[in-house]
Write a structure and sequence with these properties.
globular; about 90 residues; alpha+beta; 3 helices; single chain
């Protein structure tokens, strides 16, 4: 099974359930239709929660609420998301 992990990368099987986090910030696209919450967990990893505007002040979680990451810091997560076609509205 070790060869499988080497071939397909690290799989930790760790869960974030019950892990404390703080919201390091929320980013909005220029048109306001996409929002990203930067969540910094107590284990040192940062994840993104992406959402899209529905109507009024209602946003719906993207990817069924699954987090995107991990990133080494909120800064790295921000650099990643602002460069994506989805966040820039070109997808």
């Amino acid at each position: 099974m070790t060869w499988w992990k080497r071939l397909f990368g690290r799989t930790t099987g760790r869960s974030l359930d019950g892990t404390m986090f703080r919201v390091a910030g929320t980013l909005y696209s220029r048109d306001g239709r996409r929002a990203v919450e930067l969540r910094e967990f107590s284990n040192g990893e940062t994840y993104l929660l992406e959402s899209e505007w529905v109507e009024g002040d209602v946003f719906r979680d993207r990817h069924g609420g699954r987090l995107v990451g991990p990133f080494t810091s909120p800064d790295h997560a921000e650099q990643f998301i602002v460069g994506t076609p989805w966040f820039n509205g070109t997808e």
